[in-house]
Design a protein that fits this description.
The chain is extended and about 80 Å long. The chain has about 150 residues and is mainly beta. Strands 3-2-1-4-5 form a 5-stranded antiparallel beta sheet, with helices on one face. Helix content is about 10%, strand content about 30%.
Length: about 150
């Protein structure tokens, strides 16, 4: 008996192209290959373990593309505090690129997303960011000032 005798065929789960609800799982600022600023957003289609990266590159179509993302996810328009984006939920039409990888074709508005099947599992919650000092009482004098 070989140490490899426990092998069993197992294929990677595949998500067919189509419209899906997604969760924002990560956000990163990067530079494109041509040196333009860009935002890379990791999207996880509902019910899967895969992450599809979407790129918002600074340029001619940036405002239009990021506006449709804000509309789909409910992220406040113009909110570029990326720490608050993870957990946001939206919907998009996913297609395959020439290499067979999924990518976002376009984001769906909430009215169109309402036609999709409901979210499977617990609905994610958006991250919140606080400065951590709201409840700290302000002292009148510091110890060395007495």
């Amino acid at each position: 008996m070989s140490k490899w005798s426990s092998y069993q065929r197992e294929e990677m789960p595949r998500l067919e192209p189509g419209s899906y609800r997604f969760e924002v799982v990560n956000v990163e600022e990067k530079q494109s290959q041509k040196g333009s600023d860009m935002i890379v957003v990791g999207l996880r289609p509902n019910g899967t373990k895969i992450t599809v990266n979407h790129y918002f590159v600074q340029g001619e179509w940036f405002n239009r593309n990021i506006t449709s993302f804000f509309d789909s996810t409910g992220i406040e328009e113009g909110n570029f505090n990326f720490l608050t984006w993870p957990g946001a939920v939206g919907a998009a039409k996913f297609i395959e690129d020439e290499r067979g990888y999924l990518k976002v074709s376009y984001f769906l508005k909430p009215e169109k997303a309402a036609e999709l099947p409901p979210w499977v599992g617990p609905v994610p919650e958006r991250q919140t960011v606080t400065d951590g000092f709201e409840d700290v009482p302000e002292d009148e004098k510091l110890p060395w000032e007495e």
